[in-house]
Amino acid sequence: MTITSKPELGIALIGHAFMGATHSHAWRTAPRAFDLPLEPRMTVVCGRDGEATAAAAERLGWEESSTDWREVLTRDDIDVVDICTPGHTHAEIAVAALEAGKHVLCEKPLANSIAEAEQMTLAAELAASRGVRAMVGFTYRRVPAIQLARQLVAEGRIGEIRHVRAQYLQDWLLDPEAPLSWRLDKKLAGSGALGDIGSHIVDLVQFITGEHLETVTGALRTFVTERPVQAASGGFTGRAGTERGPVTVDDAAVFLAELSGGGLGTFEATRFATGRKNAIRLEINGSRGALSFDFEDMNVLNVLDTGDDPHVQGFRRVVVTEPEHPYLTAWWPPGHGLGYDHGFVNQAADLVGAIASGQDPTPSFADALGIQRVLDAVERSSQDRRSWVSVPGARFAAPAHVPA
Amino acid sequence: MTITSKPELGIALIGHAFMGATHSHAWRTAPRAFDLPLEPRMTVVCGRDGEATAAAAERLGWEESSTDWREVLTRDDIDVVDICTPGHTHAEIAVAALEAGKHVLCEKPLANSIAEAEQMTLAAELAASRGVRAMVGFTYRRVPAIQLARQLVAEGRIGEIRHVRAQYLQDWLLDPEAPLSWRLDKKLAGSGALGDIGSHIVDLVQFITGEHLETVTGALRTFVTERPVQAASGGFTGRAGTERGPVTVDDAAVFLAELSGGGLGTFEATRFATGRKNAIRLEINGSRGALSFDFEDMNVLNVLDTGDDPHVQGFRRVVVTEPEHPYLTAWWPPGHGLGYDHGFVNQAADLVGAIASGQDPTPSFADALGIQRVLDAVERSSQDRRSWVSVPGARFAAPAHVPA
Amino acid sequence: MTITSKPELGIALIGHAFMGATHSHAWRTAPRAFDLPLEPRMTVVCGRDGEATAAAAERLGWEESSTDWREVLTRDDIDVVDICTPGHTHAEIAVAALEAGKHVLCEKPLANSIAEAEQMTLAAELAASRGVRAMVGFTYRRVPAIQLARQLVAEGRIGEIRHVRAQYLQDWLLDPEAPLSWRLDKKLAGSGALGDIGSHIVDLVQFITGEHLETVTGALRTFVTERPVQAASGGFTGRAGTERGPVTVDDAAVFLAELSGGGLGTFEATRFATGRKNAIRLEINGSRGALSFDFEDMNVLNVLDTGDDPHVQGFRRVVVTEPEHPYLTAWWPPGHGLGYDHGFVNQAADLVGAIASGQDPTPSFADALGIQRVLDAVERSSQDRRSWVSVPGARFAAPAHVPA
Amino acid sequence: MTITSKPELGIALIGHAFMGATHSHAWRTAPRAFDLPLEPRMTVVCGRDGEATAAAAERLGWEESSTDWREVLTRDDIDVVDICTPGHTHAEIAVAALEAGKHVLCEKPLANSIAEAEQMTLAAELAASRGVRAMVGFTYRRVPAIQLARQLVAEGRIGEIRHVRAQYLQDWLLDPEAPLSWRLDKKLAGSGALGDIGSHIVDLVQFITGEHLETVTGALRTFVTERPVQAASGGFTGRAGTERGPVTVDDAAVFLAELSGGGLGTFEATRFATGRKNAIRLEINGSRGALSFDFEDMNVLNVLDTGDDPHVQGFRRVVVTEPEHPYLTAWWPPGHGLGYDHGFVNQAADLVGAIASGQDPTPSFADALGIQRVLDAVERSSQDRRSWVSVPGARFAAPAHVPA
């Protein structure tokens, strides 16, 4: 079925769990919402289990399924490899894909170790020199209110940044009887709340402010240290609920940071914030204005402008759904809000645009490596109970063009 | 005890229930918060029961108590009569006080009938020609955010008024076993939710917009038509809970209004708004801006200015505690909010200021008569199931000076 | 391209403007988000202009385009006709489609006149007897928070309904120089704010409460009575900005209503609510609890339960994104909110489910006719300045099954 | 003037600036709002400047004024010494007053150094053995919502505390041309934002949770290091605006804390939080529930109970104005909110109650010393860039009785 006259862009999706589903939605929707220069084609989805992957292909709308991602890399009709697998597999797949000349979209966190992330960044830079693009899926950057926040900082409306408050609050591990999933195993997941969700707020703060975190001090905490072992999938084991295994990652992380512009930041990432489901809360106070955002009200950015007349000065509740707002020409009329998945659609559209125009998309692997280094410094600060660990060689890409 | 060198202003309070308590607080506090030209002296409180009134004098801080308000009117050391009794007694006391040359502060609603209100207004106008002042206690006008709202309309920031949404929501009659108090007896109270709290939102809308309600159509409703008769106070009667009597006033009132400037208003006053305790909610949309207020967050006025840049336009959450805001030079630093009673203190200060400067305070008895006429038109509309009853001879005072 | 083994359901979309785009998104997304019994196939889109319709087909993802909807009705591979054209064309297309044995999804308002709506309802009932389904696109019913609201009323948590406050507030006509679009022409649009958005809040109130509006009284208002005539599309006319034509529909509507259960409602629909973009605000107070909703925060339902301990009683801010909430098993994890378009996807899924299971979907044409009658009564009340016009023969379908 | 038959309690106020004004309001109001066992008498106010103090006596309502606080301590008609002077004078006055057998209410922070605070605590403990009471003015404890928060923790509704987020945000030093007041001089003020407002959030967290901060790590920051020197009060100096002096205290403080129950806390106190005027924000996540408070909406406590049914679970917005709530029997009906000053009135009433009943009031000097030690540990952590400084000998009073 050909519904468009545009050149096609063949996509291979690796992984078909939660992130695979959101990326599938994005690839399907982006060319209909945006007038893209290339038409993404949902060619093949890869997974380990043949039957499950075939079912995922039908459910998520991919033409084919495969259990051999290496074979997929050899196909001429694949242009983009979209990596939605757990973190410990990212490096191998991404490096191979880039070397095979495929553009790569890799989910965050980039890797489970600094060494892997460095290797991937090197591969991405080599690939870039050959016109192959690499991008990391810090999708919350693509929420229009976040883009607007960055734009307002860039416009000078906030002034010099003095304070950042950044929290990513969830509560899905509250129940001590919640099972010991792979996400709680350091070997597979690399990190707990810090890497999974703390990485997002580090990225968002650096993206919005255009600054980076120079030194950090913090603490990790595991509140529930043992949990019931899950039965192996697909079979009865008789162990569920009786055997317990150790949680080897953090449940929560708190840290302070000094920003490169001289401001102070407080950061918190936790899966134990009772009553908060996916609350990404950012607050920035500058010398001229301030910003406040909460993902639980994701279509709103609160903006303070100290230039307003004193008797009518206060945070403006900007509903970020106007045609003047980032990405909104592709979407609905004012007040008809967007949801979680729209950020992924915007992300897919941006990647297609970058590929077509021959530009490097952001966030780059180098950006993601910088975030890994921040998280690593937090972890070392916590382990050693040392204060103010410097983030070594923090690399931070220059502020990218803000989408109109 | 003399703690001030200023000339004194002798106050007599008539009634010592809830309103008597708030007015006592106001007389005690106003000269300490504001630099008043006269020093109010809490000379005497009047009530029907000698013992109870004496106890009230001690509790509320009055020098003397009396059971004879007529005698009090003859005293030279009384300058102001503050009427906090139920509505059916207002006319007699107020007219007598004005004729005795005493300034009068009368609680709202002004009277239980249009005829009484007209008589009182006439008395006030005659008294004014002799330099005697009369004022009605629509105290919510004295909330700083409300004053600011009026100021913004006067500054032209809102433009032509198109829509008004005004609600006064309480829920204290929700329980059908709540007893049949005098407030539910039309002979004593005159009206139910309409007169008690509906009068406030009519006043606030007219005060803020500087317009008046020209025609109305509405409905009154009594949801619980019979309630347990209360035992007589002070004795055991054995009747409580078994005998029931009829509720003769409205539990709730809704009405639409056409404003003199061409806008449309929706109004609602109810004691059955489950979960709302004292929610006075006002929203005004004009051709240039908008306002939104909720007494449950009384230190905040939300203000929209359509002149703001489109990408940063939104309701500004103005915390009305800055020195630039009405009454705030008398109070606490920014962000240190005010409560319910501060409006009464501001009201007392305004009255003292008007007396000292020889000006007529607002709202006048004529203003209150205008409000009575609106409520009467609503009631007639409801009884006859007639639409759009005109408010006869609606008199509306010119916008008063907005306090700095 | 076949990506599924399920039986297909051929869809024809009539109209490809704003509503056509949202419906296209819904047909594309529903089978991927939900495990549907049938696979919708986006077969053909119809429009008046061949070139524009062909472009729309590519942009929105339809296999073919056509300028002859009557011809499309004869095709065997079309099972569902989805009508997204202006209101004055609904009756002709819907009746023809139903007579041709096609299931129909018709956008609201159902028709521009009661007579047309009655004719359509009759056609739908005849079709139903032949197993052909008809449904109206009151899509806001499919917002999870709205479904939850209805469920809570049905569970008895709210009790007897005393008060309803329903507002649909927009501001896109604020500028008096906004052009005279077809939506402001009564011949084409049938009605202004009342029919376009007032219809939604009447539907939502009746849907949530399970009651209907028995009598109404109200007022319509046109604030800007003349606007610049738009140049004909596709050519230079020289008239834009100089010639003006009359606005023949209402800019705003306010009305009161008596509900069938004895409660009182206030309703307001306007395109002049400065600062409100698409604020659908509902508040319901019952004898046991209360509900509050605002589409500007569409993933939240505020719920009061008077059974809570008094010292911890207050409106609960329920983030309606849990697996226990309506439709949410198809969507993202807790706290990962939905947007405007998800209601359309849910709607498409519900229609497919009804077709597959042989049940009549809701809201039916009869439900929509009932809404038309309410709006008509409001209009007559406004024209005659008569109060409390009864809604004749108000028909209200029994509460449908609430989705799990 | 004697308006009560109760035994009197003679009060001497030392200092008559901002805090002196709020305490005056409290002494005047408390016996009228509460039915106190003793009648406070506002006997004398002390200050350095005779004329200014005499004016303050009239303005604030004190019977006499004095420039000799030592002389006042010898008076038999003085029972309570209320210290509202800058921190560097607290120790001398408080110790002398306690030794003179006077009950003491001392403003926070208790002292400018640990040594002074220890000396004062010793004096208070000695005095207590003689029936002389000492209390520190951490007035925010007396906000009803805060008392309710503590009560809910004590009731077990929150469970084990996992996370605390505590912020005290102001912005009054935002302007770099704001003058160099004594509050910015470390010799006089002892500390900047940390001691002035950070002390409050440490107290509130310890008070609500019943835990103490065991170890801390943090950073202080002075954003504006030089400011214009103020002209000496009372004379023209010609220096204002040209000469600049160093700011020797912190503008902002951030720190992390480990709580004695194993939870993690993030703390922030700043005078540079653009747009926040007096935002005391507390959020507590426990194993069974959660709490959220913001002083900008001070009559509200948001409460989550994980025991609620999942489909109606969410933060309850409790308006803390019911008769069931702490202190509320003394105040207004539901929904008629309190303001900043009511906490001071409640505090005065509590102190009078403690004196009359012969109980030690809270917070004690020992409690305040514990807070000083936390602040000192933060400061040392910041200076040395050391992490996780233990709070030595942290003493924390057992949870006091929660007022009904």
Automatic annotation (TrEMBL), chains A, B, C, D:
<feature type="domain" description="GFO/IDH/MocA-like oxidoreductase">
    <location>
        <begin position="147"/>
        <end position="291"/>
    </location>
</feature>
<dbReference type="InterPro" id="IPR050463">
    <property type="entry name" value="Gfo/Idh/MocA_oxidrdct_glycsds"/>
</dbReference>
<keyword id="KW-0520">NAD</keyword>
<dbReference type="InterPro" id="IPR036291">
    <property type="entry name" value="NAD(P)-bd_dom_sf"/>
</dbReference>
<dbReference type="GO" id="GO:0016491">
    <property type="term" value="F:oxidoreductase activity"/>
</dbReference>
<dbReference type="Pfam" id="PF01408">
    <property type="entry name" value="GFO_IDH_MocA"/>
</dbReference>
<dbReference type="InterPro" id="IPR055170">
    <property type="entry name" value="GFO_IDH_MocA-like_dom"/>
</dbReference>
<dbReference type="InterPro" id="IPR000683">
    <property type="entry name" value="Gfo/Idh/MocA-like_OxRdtase_N"/>
</dbReference>
<feature type="domain" description="Gfo/Idh/MocA-like oxidoreductase N-terminal">
    <location>
        <begin position="10"/>
        <end position="138"/>
    </location>
</feature>
<dbReference type="Pfam" id="PF22725">
    <property type="entry name" value="GFO_IDH_MocA_C3"/>
</dbReference>
<dbReference type="GO" id="GO:0000166">
    <property type="term" value="F:nucleotide binding"/>
</dbReference>
<protein>
    <submittedName>
        <fullName>Dehydrogenase</fullName>
    </submittedName>
</protein>
<keyword id="KW-0560">Oxidoreductase</keyword>
